[in-house]
TrEMBL record:
Lineage: superkingdom: Eukaryota
Keyword Repeat listed: yes
Function: Assembles a suppression complex (suppresome) by tethering SIRT1 and MDM2 to regulate composite modifications of p53/TP53. Confers both deacetylation-mediated functional inactivation, by SIRT1, and ubiquitination-dependent degradation, by MDM2, of p53/TP53, promoting a proliferative and cell survival behaviors. May play a role in the regulation of spermatogenesis.
Protein name stated in the entry: MORN repeat-containing protein 3
Keywords, ordered alphabetically: Cytoplasmic vesicle, Repeat
GO cellular component, one term: acrosomal vesicle
InterPro entries hit by this protein: MORN (IPR003409), MORN3 (IPR052472)
Species: Grus americana (Whooping crane)
Locations listed in the record: Cytoplasmic vesicle, Secretory vesicle, Acrosome
Keyword Methyltransferase: no
Length: 217
């Protein structure tokens, strides 16, 4: 019986090229069309694992964990100083779905910094904010603003402890005027005290006490 030989089916050459182009595991630096570059681990042609991304347009660098093409896990994000060109850390902490999520610290250009919890790229949860004027807020945040219970300490050591809403004093709270030796306790609404009582508090140790003590009722 004669043997019939059929020609072997040949696949298009681009199939082979495509297989070789698929990135999986640790790879050398890969360059995007826009000039961005990534060095690190891949899975199914997506950044996955440990890796470092450099954005050409801004010069920013992210180094840390990736999941399926997005920053996810622990990592740091830095940008170059426009004058010295040295890299300055902007954020270091946890990420989820390409946004800050979990505990992390952000360093702002004017010297301010935030240490605490994030959600979807916004300050949410517990955190501490160091302001440029020397004030410090420590407490609860919601959608990038102080909301809930928190304490604001001013540069002169005076402080407010109580409720916050949309970044303003709101609800029951206490304001300690330690420079005068007084304490105001009452209800606040949108940063304005609506009602309460003012009493002497540590007046003898105050650096600039009032001329006369508040008479007791």
């Amino acid at each position: 019986m004669p043997i019939v030989k059929y020609p072997r089916a040949t696949e298009p050459l681009w199939h082979e090229w495509d297989r070789k182009a698929q990135k999986c595991g640790l790879r050398h630096t890969a360059y995007a069309v826009n000039g961005d570059q990534y060095t690190g681990e891949w899975l199914d042609n997506l950044k996955h694992g440990k890796g470092t991304q450099v954005w050409k347009r801004t010069g920013a660098i992210y180094s840390g964990d990736w999941k399926f093409g997005k920053r996810d896990g622990y990592g740091s994000y830095s940008i170059p100083d426009p004058v010295t060109k040295e890299y300055k850390k902007v954020y270091t902490g946890w990420w989820k779905n390409d946004k800050k999520c979990g505990y992390g610290a952000t360093f702002y250009p004017d010297g301010e910094r935030y240490e605490g919890e994030w959600s979807s790229g916004l300050r949410s949860g517990w955190g501490r904010m160091y302001y440029r004027d020397g004030s410090i807020y420590e407490g609860q945040w919601l959608e990038d603003r102080p909301s809930g219970q928190g304490m604001l300490r001013l540069p002169n050591e005076n402080r407010y402890e109580g409720g916050w809403k949309d970044g303003k004093k709101h609800g029951p709270g206490k304001f300690f005027y330690l420079d005068k030796g007084q304490l105001f306790e009452g209800i606040w609404a949108a940063d304005i005290p609506k009602c309460g009582i003012l009493i002497d508090f540590g007046r003898d140790e105050a650096p600039a006490p009032t001329q006369y003590p508040i008479p007791k009722v």
